[in-house]
Amino acid sequence: MPAYLVAHAKGQRGDALIEDPDLTLEIRDGWAILADAHGIAYAVPTEQVASIQRVDQEPAPQKE
């Protein structure tokens, strides 16, 4: 499942972990926008963000 960790810039409030099966990230007009098939799930001005990192992992392959 796609998951993004949004680390806020120094002086801003806590970090956010956003998870959703259909989550996408778009940077547009000074905003970091995380959205799914239903619309925007989370949006934050880019000047308030230190980093955005995708943190989900693919499942390990099954051994036969």
Keywords summarizing the entry:
3-stranded antiparallel sheet; single chain; 0% helix; mainly beta; 64 residues
Describe this structure in words.
It is a single chain. With 64 residues, this protein is an all-beta fold. Helices cover 0% and strands 53% of the residues. It contains no helices and six strands. It has a three-stranded antiparallel beta sheet, with no helix packed on it. Strands 3-4-5 form a three-stranded antiparallel beta sheet, with no helix packed on it. It is globular, with a radius of gyration of 14 Å. The model has no long low-confidence stretch (mean pLDDT 89).
Please report the distance between the alpha carbons of the first and last residues.
24 Å
Taking the sheet with the most strands, its summary is: 3 strands, antiparallel
Question: Would you report the number of β strands?
Answer: 6
| Beta-strand share of residues | over 45%
Helical residue percent?
under 10%
Rounded mean pLDDT is: 89
Strand order of the largest sheet: 2-1-6
Gyration radius from CA atoms, angstroms: 14 Å
Shape: globular
Judged by helices, strands and strand pairing, the structural class is mainly beta
Order of helices and strands: EEEEEE
List low-pLDDT spans. Answer: none
**Total of helices:** 0
